[in-house]
Write a structure and sequence with these properties.
Elements: H1 3-29, E1 39-40, E2 43-48, E3 51-57, E4 61-62, H2 66-97, H3 102-118, H4 123-184, H5 190-206, E5 209-213, E6 219-223, E7 228-231, E8 233-234, E9 237-238, E10 262-263, E11 266-267, H6 281-310, E12 325-327, H7 340-343, E13 344-346, H8 360-363, H9 377-387, H10 402-442, H11 446-479
Antiparallel strand pairs: 1-4, 2-3, 5-6, 6-7, 7-8, 9-10, 10-11, 12-13
Length: 480
């Protein structure tokens, strides 16, 4: 072998070692980066005219396991959707346990009515009844307001999630093109593929997807129900947010200003047809906005309607049919429009703040003047209707008093929240398991990478030694 050949071989060897060291260092630097796939190159022998001509490197490759990655994305999608539902359910359940909770307010009203029936002459106790009744109104309003705020937040979160998906799809379209060009020109595309994988994860977390391979390493993306999101060009998901979601808005019932989710006119809103995906963050947000929270306000409205109707019982209601509580000042007109809990109001005839008199708690809503101070008959009648066991008209199975129904409703929402939180925890556990399995296969093993660095250093040193020896030989020849 000539000195020129030896130098050429050593130079290619050092260049290959340098490139391998660069890739190994990149792997180590990204060892803790979520979703990063280990990169590698293979050393190949170069042959020219049947003789060794140094070292060449293969194209940089990413470690992949399509099945594990698909399973991880599916688990991520399910975890994202269940987490959203659990979070919204927990917010509502916590309203029942917070300060001024519904059960405590209704129970306090019951106790104060009992006190007035026993001491009808006490104006202080009459004032307490009115105050407690006002707290009941506030408790219902807080619950209704919280539910509407959660639905509004879900609507806004859908817009944000749709924006993320659209941005990711555009990025994937661009990366597809760059990867195709790199493949055609024989250049490395590993870093571009890593970027594309990261963007695919963004889409998959929000909408469950599957991918199809196209020419030159490009990908087509479809939802799990077969709706195309990208094939050559990215499609745009369309959604229109609303400023404030009110109790009467129900997208699934139709005729609502709430927006659905479409792709080129195809309806893919979760819960609306066979093309709708049931998992993913967007599906969870739609279920919160149009499903679970709609059911929740209906349950609260049913208990509010029961409370109003109790005091509209013949003999204790006013001549105009109104009782202690009203539907925004009017008598209850079954079936009440959605959102009764938020419209619940105290009858102005007992409310000093509206020109009423507290002694009407004792003497009746139609009383023009205070009656006998020792007569607790009317207060006892109010107490009797509050403690009578009734069905709420919602999904609460057992008849109960007004306070009992309020307590049962809180227990129902707590149970639902716990169930959803358990589902979310199970989904997160499954995701963690699949992520660990994927990382084991495609992730970075730092110990192995450090061993590779030692071998690369040895190869580099060996090639450097060849150049050093060749240099001494050249110097000796020049001296001769």
């Amino acid at each position: 072998m000539s000195l020129t050949s030896a130098l050429s071989n050593a130079v290619t060897g050092m260049s290959a070692a340098s490139r391998r060291a660069e890739i190994t260092s990149h792997n180590i630097a990204n060892a803790t980066t979520e979703g990063y796939a280990r990169q590698s190159v293979e050393s190949l022998q170069r042959v020219s005219a049947g003789r060794g001509a140094g070292v060449a490197l293969s194209a940089t490759a990413r470690e992949t396991d399509p099945r594990l990655t698909a399973s991880r994305r599916e688990a991520e999608s399910e975890a994202g959707g269940s987490q959203v539902q659990a979070a919204s359910s927990r917010v509502v359940a916590d309203v029942f346990d917070g300060s001024g909770a519904l059960f405590e307010s209704v129970a306090a009203l019951e106790n104060s009515l009992r006190s007035v029936s026993e001491m009808p002459e006490s104006s202080a106790l009459q004032e307490r009844v009115v105050s407690n009744a006002d707290q009941v109104v506030t408790a219902f309003a807080d619950i209704a307001g919280t539910i509407q705020a959660e639905r509004t937040a879900a609507d806004g979160a859908i817009e944000a999630a749709v924006g993320k998906v659209n941005t990711a799809l555009v990025a994937i379209e661009k990366l597809n093109g760059q990867i195709g060009i790199a493949r055609v020109n024989g250049r490395d595309s590993a870093s571009l593929e890593q970027q594309r994988s990261d963007q695919l994860d963004v889409v998959a977390q929000n909408i469950p997807i599957r991918t199809m391979t196209r020419d030159n390493g490009q990908l087509a993306i479809l939802t799990d129900r077969g709706v195309t999101l990208l094939d050559g060009q990215a499609k745009e998901l369309e959604f229109s947010p609303i400023t404030f979601v009110t109790a009467d808005m129900d997208y699934r019932a139709g005729g609502s200003p709430l927006s659905g989710l479409t792709v080129e006119g195809i309806e893919i809103s979760p819960g609306n047809g066979y093309r709708s995906s049931d998992t993913g963050t967007i599906a969870g947000l739609f279920e919160a906005r149009d499903g679970s929270l709609v059911d929740t306000i209906a349950e609260v409205d049913a208990v509010a309607a029961d409370l109003v109707s109790r005091f509209e019982t013949a003999g204790i209601a006013a001549a105009d049919g109104r009782g202690l509580f009203t539907d925004a000042g009017a008598a209850l007109s079954p079936p009440a429009a959605p959102g009764l809990a938020g419209r619940l109001a105290l009858n102005e005839r007992v409310d000093p703040g509206q020109g009423g008199e507290v002694w009407r708690i004792r003497d009746g809503l139609d009383a023009a003047a205070p009656g006998a101070t020792v007569n607790g008959t009317h207060a006892q009648a109010l107490l009797d209707v509050m403690t009578e066991a009734r069905l709420s008209g919602g999904s609460l199975a057992r008849p109960a008093s007004a306070a009992g129904l309020a307590g049962d409703l809180g227990a129902l929402f707590e149970q639902r929240s716990q169930t959803l939180e358990d589902i979310a925890a199970a989904d997160r556990s499954r995701l963690s398991t699949v992520q660990a399995a994927e990382t084991t296969v495609i992730g970075v093993d730092i110990d192995q990478e450090l061993q590779n660095l030692i071998l690369i250093e040895q190869a580099y040193s060996a090639n450097a030694k060849v150049i050093e020896v060749a240099d001494r030989l050249v110097q000796r020849l020049l001296e001769i």
